[in-house]
Design goal:
The protein is an alpha/beta fold. The chain is built from 12 helices and 18 strands.
Length: 503
């Protein structure tokens, strides 16, 4: 285990070193912060967006909770930046801003480069009093467009989340609670907000959020006490049915933040490494992912049990598990029938839900015993995992699902080691091909009455999705629907622990 963790840590370190943004300070050309200072009477939209008036439906830049006017987008996907003299004398704070930019670079198709002669660029300055940013890409200016970051106020606990928040404004996003649908999710305590600050809680008309549901966890969401007259009393909070949700985090981009950036900028290929979100972002589900299960056996069933690729509504899912691939001679194998079905599913996905991820499942009643045999031998586990990564990638799939029906005699520790070997092989393949890491999904049967049932919670840190299942007996409906097994299984619960985040 220690050796495995050390290997993964080394891979991650290499990616960070080669992906890190390098900035070479040049005090002679750096602008003095006093020349960049704002007028004391400067006004801010939503508290920290500078240089833009209140929104209207006629000025062409509103309509989503991100910019819709192409002239305000960084269409080249390259964002030049420079640090003020004060920042260049604060290497630790400067590095935190570079770390913030590095997150965008790894999770989206945006690139940050040190400014040379560009007239449209981000000018990072050390404002003495507040954190703020211009909105979207501004007109050419030799002094650039400001991103003000107070050295004392904008780097809480040595984190770069506030810098990410302001960069989100600079690339064209408003705060999450400004969405048209926000009153379905949060309450506003108007009595605790000063009259001259109530406009900071306005919501926009005709706003959508790039097809994403409300994100309590967004780095762009107000905190509970923002603009409060009485700082002990909330100004904004989740509604009662969402009372367990936290708002106002400044740890970093959420999964939904990342998806919205990639939608706004039409990012089609994501880099290898994406940040791990600090929590769920979809208020309608316990996780932001919704799984569908497709069984190849359904295509040959009679009567109402028959099911084909054309019957699946792809828009219902964020990922689909297709069963089953097989294991031949210790290697993952995709038969011709399954290959044809996968091609149909991929074509349907491309037409209706291009972001859908397709996982191939192995195991079940046919190959669980084979998995046990492989898991007992370290060299076989290594060979299987490495070959599976290559097979999945060449087939255009996004991950591997293992539906493991536990066979008596396999120690749980052996199964855990097998999963660790898969995780390591997928991480290495991702690094070698500069591709988003293949996912690992599990269906495990945790009924305590089954001999040696797998501890699903213990698998949480090792995989991306755990489906916990239990057996029940198919009654008289078994013959009428053409189910070939004496017993059928049903998914009871699905957890996504989001160590993998390509969505």
């Amino acid at each position: 285990m220690e050796r495995f963790l050390r290997c993964i840590w080394t891979i991650t370190l290499v990616v960070q070193i080669y992906g890190r943004i390098v900035y070479k300070p040049n005090p002679e050309s750096a602008l003095d912060d006093t020349s960049l200072a704002l007028n004391l009477n400067a006004t801010f939209l939503e508290g920290d967006i500078f240089g833009i008036d209140a929104p209207s439906d006629t000025n062409g830049i509103f309509g989503k909770n991100g910019v819709v006017d192409d002239t305000l987008k960084w269409k080249s996907l390259v964002i030049p930046f420079a640090f003020s003299k004060t920042f260049q004398n604060e290497p630790d704070r400067m590095q935190l801003v570079l770390d913030a930019m590095d997150v965008f670079q790894k999770a989206t198709c945006l690139t940050f480069v040190q400014r040379t002669t560009e007239m449209q660029y981000l000018q990072i300055l050390a404002d003495p009093m507040r954190c703020y940013s211009n909105f979207g890409k501004q007109e050419p200016n030799p002094k650039g467009q400001r991103v003000g970051l107070s050295l004392n106020l904008c780097f809480e606990d040595g984190k770069s989340g506030i810098a990410q928040h302001e960069i989100m404004h600079a690339i064209g996003f408003y705060h999450e609670q400004s969405r048209l649908d926000r009153d379905e999710y949060v309450d506003i305590n108007w009595s605790n907000i000063p009259e001259d600050k109530k406009d900071q809680f306005q919501k926009y008309t005709n706003t959508t959020a790039f097809g994403e549901t409300y994100d309590f966890n967004s780095v762009l969401h107000y905190g509970m006490y923002d603009f409060a007259i009485d700082r002990t009393v909330w100004t904004i909070r989740p509604k009662e049915k969402y009372k367990d949700r936290k708002i106002g985090q400044r740890d970093g981009l959420s999964a939904t933040d990342i998806r919205k950036i990639n939608k706004m900028y039409n990012c089609t290929k994501l880099p290898t490494t994406t940040p791990t979100p600090s929590g769920p972002s979809d208020p309608k589900f316990d996780t932001p992912h919704r799984g569908c299960y497709y069984s190849l056996a359904g295509e040959s069933r009679p009567g109402n049990g028959k099911f084909t690729a054309g019957d699946l509504d792809m828009t219902l899912c964020t990922y689909i598990i297709v069963a089953f691939g097989s294991i031949k001679n210790g290697r993952l194998t995709i038969g011709s029938d399954l290959s044809a079905t996968l091609e149909k599913l991929k074509a349907s996905r491309d037409n209706s839900n291009p972001n859908l991820k397709i996982f191939l499942s192995v195991g079940g009643s046919a190959d669980s015993a084979t998995i046990s045999t492989i898991a007992r031998n370290a060299s076989k586990s290594h060979a299987y995992a490495r070959a599976a990564a290559l097979q999945l990638r060449s087939s255009g799939l996004d991950g591997l699902d293992i539906m493991y029906q536990h066979k008596a005699g396999l120690e749980p520790a052996k199964f855990f080691s097998f999963i660790q070997e898969l995780q390591r092989a997928f991480a290495i393949e991702s690094y070698e091909t500069d591709s988003v890491r293949l996912a690992i999904s599990l269906v495990v049967f945790s009924d305590p009455t089954l001999t040696g049932s797998i501890n699903a919670k213990g698998l949480d840190p090792l995989v991306d999705i755990v489906n916990v299942a239990a057996y029940d007996f198919a009654g008289t409906d078994r013959k009428s629907i053409g189910h070939p097994l004496q017993r059928r299984w049903a998914l009871l619960e699905c957890h996504n622990f989001i160590t993998w985040n390509p969505f």
